[in-house]
């Protein structure tokens, strides 16, 4: 059974949506830490699909879970850590839960309290999710950081969020160190305008899913958001990434449509309307032009090859 897709983006709202406790010490939307065993989830527990507006770090000293980040499934067990970027389709299923921590924080939180943390995130590559297994002594160090962070979160000391941001940076450094140990991340060109464009594009599609807009932004919109000339933005995006702005937008739109066709039962017309296609025939032609398949055939194919006990829709990553 496919988990339902929600329009919820904030971490506290997702807890409330699942009818799980929102603890009184969680007093803001841009940061939270919870001990997951204290949430009282009946096991096995399947979450709905969310589209968070925040980064997430899940630390599992003791437990078994699987998380789907867009179309990638991460099978997690004890001593695993999962890092997830914002603006991704996210759902999880817990089979057992002895001890685990869930940390959420926004880009704004780090920029305000410890800007160096953003640099570390940029060095971790562009994948939506990254999971790693740590040696027991390392997971103990990570858990101590989590406990220090939790203690700061529940207290009323001044400058506690600066301390928390520093602890998040320590976690990011440990995750990145493990990432480089397993497979060095190839350095890529970085440009602040390109990074802003990609972030704004991801946010645009998240706002579409949450029902805040039906407008797919175009190059003119992104250029205006950064007070740039369209030609200049197009040039730097193309030179930095090897793809044009329009290619980025079309690829993102097609991937969003594919996800909904594969992972939800939304009617075709509803999906088309969601992304501003008022003419259903134009929607069919657009999808077929970019994928060589009609959307109905694509959905039927995905459903036809589904087998009990398997997840045909995803790339499965064992860690």
Automatic annotation (TrEMBL):
The record's annotation in SMART domains points to: HTH_ARAC (SM00342)
UniProt GO molecular function? DNA-binding transcription factor activity; sequence-specific DNA binding
| Name of a matching Pfam family | HTH_18
Supply the source organism for this entry.
Flavobacterium subsaxonicum WB 4.1-42 = DSM 21790
- What region holds the HTH araC/xylS-type domain? 203-301
Key words of the record: DNA-binding, Transcription, Transcription regulation
Q: Which SUPFAM superfamilies match?
A: Homeodomain-like, Regulatory protein AraC
Q: Does the keyword Lipid biosynthesis feature in the UniProt annotation?
A: no
Name the InterPro entries for this protein. Answer: Homeodomain-like_sf, HTH-like, HTH_AraC
Q: At the top level of its lineage, which domain of life is listed?
A: Bacteria
Q: What is this protein called?
A: HTH araC/xylS-type domain-containing protein
């Amino acid at each position: 059974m496919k988990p339902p897709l929600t329009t919820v983006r904030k971490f506290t709202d997702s807890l409330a949506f699942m009818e799980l406790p929102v603890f009184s010490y969680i007093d803001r939307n841009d940061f939270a830490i919870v001990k997951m065993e204290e949430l009282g989830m009946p096991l096995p527990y399947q979450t709905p699909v969310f589209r968070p507006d925040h980064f997430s770090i899940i630390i599992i000293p003791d437990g078994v879970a699987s998380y789907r980040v867009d179309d990638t499934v991460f099978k997690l067990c004890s001593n695993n850590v999962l890092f997830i970027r914002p603006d991704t389709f996210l759902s999880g299923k817990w089979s057992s839960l002895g001890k685990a921590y869930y940390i959420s924080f926004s880009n704004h939180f780090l920029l305000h309290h410890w800007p160096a943390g953003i640099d570390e995130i940029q060095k971790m590559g562009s994948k939506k999710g990254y999971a790693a297994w740590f040696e027991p002594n390392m997971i103990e160090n990570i858990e101590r950081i989590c406990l220090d962070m939790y203690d700061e979160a529940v207290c009323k000391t001044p400058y506690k969020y600066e301390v928390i941001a520093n602890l998040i940076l320590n976690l990011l450094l440990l995750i990145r160190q493990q990432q480089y140990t397993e497979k060095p991340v190839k350095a890529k060109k970085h440009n602040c305008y390109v990074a802003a464009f990609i972030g704004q594009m991801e946010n645009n599609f998240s706002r579409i899913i949450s029902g805040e807009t039906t407008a797919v932004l175009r190059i003119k919109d992104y250029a205006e958001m950064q007070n740039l000339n369209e030609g200049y933005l197009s040039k730097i995006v193309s030179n930095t990434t090897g793809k044009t702005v329009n290619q980025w937008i079309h690829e993102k739109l097609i991937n969003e449509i594919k996800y909904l066709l594969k992972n939800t039962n939304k009617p075709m017309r509803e999906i088309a309307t969601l992304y501003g296609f008022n003419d259903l025939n134009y929607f069919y032609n657009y999808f077929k032009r970019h994928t060589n398949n009609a959307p109905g055939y694509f959905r039927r194919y995905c459903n036809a090859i589904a087998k009990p006990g398997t997840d045909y829709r995803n790339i499965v990553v064992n860690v």
